[in-house]
Amino acid sequence: MTTSRLLSGGRIDRSRPLRFSFDGMKLGGFAGDTLASALLANDAMIVGRSFKLHRPRGLFGAGSDDPSSMVERLGPRPAANQLATTLPLEDGAVYRSVSTWPNARHDVGAVAQLFSRLLPAGFYYKTFMWPTWHLFEPFIRGAAGLGRVPGHDAWEPVSESRFGDCDLLVIGAGPAGLGAALAAGRGGARVILVDDGTSPGGRLISDGGDPDDWVGTSIAELKSLPNVHMLIASTAWGYHEHNLITVLERNPVDAPDLDFRNWKIRARQVVVAAGAFERPIPFADNDRPGIMLASAVRTWLGRFGVRPGKQAVVFTNNDSACSTALALAATGAAVTVVDVRHETSNQVREALDQAGVTLLNGSMVCKAYGSKRVEAVDVIDADGKTIRLPCDLVALSGGWNPAFHLASQTRETRSVWHDDLATFVASHGDTRFRLAGAARAEFEPMACVRDGVRAATEALQALGMTTPSISIPELHEPFIARTVQPLWFVPPRKKGEKVFVDLSGDVTTADLGLALREGFDSIELVKRYTTAGMGVDQGKSGNVNVIGIVGTLTGTATQSVGTTTFRPPFVPVEFGSIAGARHKARLYPWRHTPLTDWHIQQGAVMYEVGLRWQRPGFYPKPGENGQTAASREASAVRNSVGVYDGTPLGKFQLKGPDVPALLDLLYISDFSKLAPRRGKYGVMMSDDGLIMDDGVVFRLNDTQWLLHSSTGAADRVHLHIEQILQIHRPHWRVSIIPVTSQWANATLCGPRARDVLAAMEPDFDISREALPFMGMAEGMIGDIPVRVFKVSWTGEASFELNTPARYATALWDKVMATGARFGITPVGSEANHILRVEAGYLSTGHEVDGTSDAYDLGFGPLVSKTKLDFMGKRSMDLRRKADPERFELVGYLPVEPSRMVPEGAPITPGGNKADQAGFVSACVMSVALGRSIALGLLHKGRSRMGETVHARVRDEIIPMTVVAPVFHDADRSRVKS
Amino acid sequence: MQRYSFFSLARNALSQHEGWQRAWRSPPLKPEYDLVIVGAGGHGLSTAYHLAKEHGITNVAVIEKGWLGGGNTARNTHTIRSNYLRDVSIRFHDVSVKLYEQLSRELNYNILFSQRSMIDLIQSWSKLRDLRRRSLAMALHGPDYQLISVPDVQKRIPAMGDLSGVRLPPLAGMLHPAGAMARHDAVAWSYARAADSRGVEIHQHTEVTGFTFGTNGAVTGVETNRGTVRARKVALATAGNTSHVIAKAGLNLPLVTRNLQAFVSEPVKPIIDVIVNCPDVGLYVMQSDKGELVIGGGTDPIPSYRQGCHFSTFEDVVASLVELFPRFKSLKMLRQWGGAIEFAYDASPIISKTTIEGLHVSTGWYGGFKSIPVGGLTYAHLLATGDPHPLAEAFGLDRFTGLRFLLEAGTVAQR
Amino acid sequence: MLILTCPWCGERPEGEFMNLGEAVPPRADDPSAMTDAEWSASINERRNIRGRHTERWWHMRGCGTIFAVVRDTITHDLFEAADEPRP
Questions:
Q1: Taking CB atoms and an 8 Å cut-off, how many pairs form between chains B and C?
Q2: ipTM over 0.85
């Protein structure tokens, strides 16, 4: 092992060494390491190359705010973009830097640095136009992007989605979050506490605190409380309306098979105690490996027992970096503190002095040297002299940015500049969430605990609950970010020196200056033009500096520069975790009739029809394709008998004295005089005067009606009726019960249908007189209760045999057994389609495409002559008054009888490339006529019978004769037989 | 206008890029203009450009409550296409695509127009019927939209997984070679720069608080947070916010605003080369030049100006995404956002005069990024001549008084 | 995703409901008494308020009640149950 790993300390398990490889180097680490800490322990300082210029990049932050440590994991579980700082190290894992060749240490892409002058912000907007962007795009695309998405061996994480609910959700288990959770937990509230680390405690732990102290005892207590649920390795990433918070839990401890669990937690109250992010101070060449945040240095030391350098410069404008200097000094490192402030408190000065740390006040680091690792920095001291300090580590602290991202996602709060704290804070809390601790710019640990308790107490008070008083532990951290003297960047001494403000996008202060110079003068425009804040850390490391620099360059007060929007997610979340277990049938569940198994056993090709119902499309016999099977099935119906499963048809039972009035309002024709045990076909329009659906209504008896809708329109029709009953005519007394799936249906159709029904020996009269067209009968077939409707959608006599769903298979078996000697043929949707086109019946989605009214589709004769009003009438009349020339339903006979016309083919005058004058809605090879026939709409079609019109199918012109839209049983004698 | 080219870039590199001029001026707000356009998004700026270019009308102020291009122009997923059913819609959007094809060179600003084709994945028989009808209608007018087989789809989208057993297995695809994307912000910036160079003034952070009217009831200007601005004509281009802006003039329009959300993954190396649209499940995905997968779906199911993430809609989109692309399960979402889009009762656009003399609207775009060039061209024509442009005659508000809707079939569910 | 309060069932998650959009007045008893302009406006015009508006929800996967609520279209906050609008 190398010298960077300390001999002791850190929360790693030195008894469990792990082997891994990075960019081909075989390296070692320990259980408890992240990939980042292990790389650092191995002195592997270069973890990647920058996005645009391919400059060597090292570790900058130690958590989700790190802008540059994205790697690919080649195995196990190959995956593209993994952030080294949040990636637990695994034994045997193989990692590779992204976008480098051959590797991050030696990268051919670094040639881009030679042209860096040609690549200012937005350079691509100014060039690559000639001859066309398409010539350059492939190169740019190839150079951009980070990891490669693995091929078919890609890791497919296993995930689930789970709901949670609680009185109080506490986000973050640092001092403030623990205080809040303890207070609420002891008070008896149902609490969920989430923390994104594997070891809760926040900075108390990452700075190397003792696990057995207050943090340890607090966590032990919380775990013992039955009303507190703790989620570790879990990040709250989205804050949605009505206090719905989404939390990504990684490798849930209770479910070893799961990679992710996405929680959707509905919290009555929320405390956001997410801590704060340290911000850097940019200067020339501040991106050299070995230059990192001061807090990250403490994390490497305290949490992982890694010392990232022996000769350190700590560059700061506040007290908090003093802890870093002392921690480094304690390991024997040589440390110089460069403090922007002319005065440092006695307390700090003395502490540094005792530790042998040099302090330079009123000084600034202005440039770094070294290419693959920082080797020295230039410091301008209080007298304006430049000193060169050799070093292998630079720790930066420019102050702290409270992490109130989640609170901003609520839209209830905005960020406000706070001059005394020299940071942005959330403007205010909402009645449903509160900020606590460092997320509220409270940095002292004891004060954080106190603030957490306060927030929990207020939250519970809002719920009418109380919290016990909590004794605040003695947690001393003398060096916090007070007396910050803002310094957004150190201007370069020479033009052309690069001061990086967003490391993930290679955005420099010069880029910001260019954007401002060119008129991109609002902060959002600056961001978009330069891409600052748009990289993988979404601005966590650099956004506030960008705002400060824009303020400095434009001479605007920081508060007036404005802020940019914090958008979800707080940290990147895997798509697989959001989809959870939704896959295949669980993605969108099917609806099945009780007969699905039978259809499949018969070899049916199943189709999905409206509202996700599964239906047989056709039942192919050996050697048949869809078309020949459908023709055979349709012929059987025309010549003898067929049967289909009509279960999915929408069904609604209506009852009450005002049903006749309802039906009269719903349908275009008169329904109020419908006699008991009779049915009637009806067309309904929405109130905008366009056809919505059609179907048959049966009056079952004096008080009950059964209304049928198309399969796919069932929900729409249901809502339509409910709106009439609950909004428009609330005084009407009608009850409506959807009964679609209560009833199964076997529809016998064909000239022998009545014979089959008779042979089934019903205990009721099915003679022509007793059961005429649009009649009904009820009784038993054997021990199966049956209700028969005599309707037709096939152009043949049809008997809809309805039975309660539990009798479906018994009825169907009976039909098939009895029908066998009549040669009964099961019929699928494709044959139904042929039959209904021949008979000229309409279908939703074909002729009924949502743009036609009742007259258009030939229902003029059905429109009531007496009703003053029905849904859609006023609109239809209004529209027709202004524009009576409309597309009307017609039949088409292709002049060439074997010619099939694609459904959807437009009709144009003469078949020319001109505006559409109609279209073909359906075309089938008729089994009745032995030729192709079609339905469709045609401009003023009813007045054009016998005319030849032309369908235009790309370069082909297909002449067709306009005929009446019925090809079979025009007098309906077969239907009525 | 300072010319942009590789040579100007190289020349400016020598001076550390300090010689670049402002892309647009920041002039003082005058008390009066010939015409005020409300909304400096893509449509407003494109309209200003065409007013200046084709009609020589340059005494124009484009006023914007926020920052330039900060509304839906900043929030859309930059898809450009012309696959429609109605003759007028096909022609209109075909012109838009053709204008887009020339835009970078016409405006001397690289909008990163990438005509990489779009594939509509067909996962139901009813969608197959709808889209075949659309493709045959489009063939009458030019734009290409061809049925392709599933193997062909897979060849063009190799990132798609094994399709056996997926829910709603693809039946075919529709290939729209004109399908394209462009850098959305750059479209606004390029028009702003070009309009500005022709004399148009752009005023950001200038919010309309009301309208002023003459004795005859005609509009005479707008009141703003920076004072009253007089104008003979006022043109709204306030996508998403038209209803409440025009309510200040006492008008009510047939519009509903909803949230349309989108999100991007972390950037990855090129993995999808075309725009993939799956209308049956409400999903589209493409990859930006930066490497991010840009993903979206249908509108959220409630009226909203929240510009956030309706979580159940989001879950549906993601579940559909990983069903077709299981390899993306380990990819991470980097950023998500929403835009307030408005659509008319019939889901077709409105480019029209209103019942108030001098007050005009361009609205109902239902995601109008693809229409920015032609929307500006035709709106400018209406504003300049008083008559609708031949391409946009069907888009008048008068169609609603007779309930003569301009319905794209398949938009029925939106009513 | 909202939590809605159904007048019958109490607080339930949004997934059980269908949004019916802005609450428009009930349909007139006699549409022929309205002018063409009034009628067409009643069909397609919406106030489309940015802020608090009244909208209807259908407890589709529940008790079936249609009810009106006041919701802020910017924040999605819900307010006291609304009275049904009247013509």
A1: 70
A2: yes
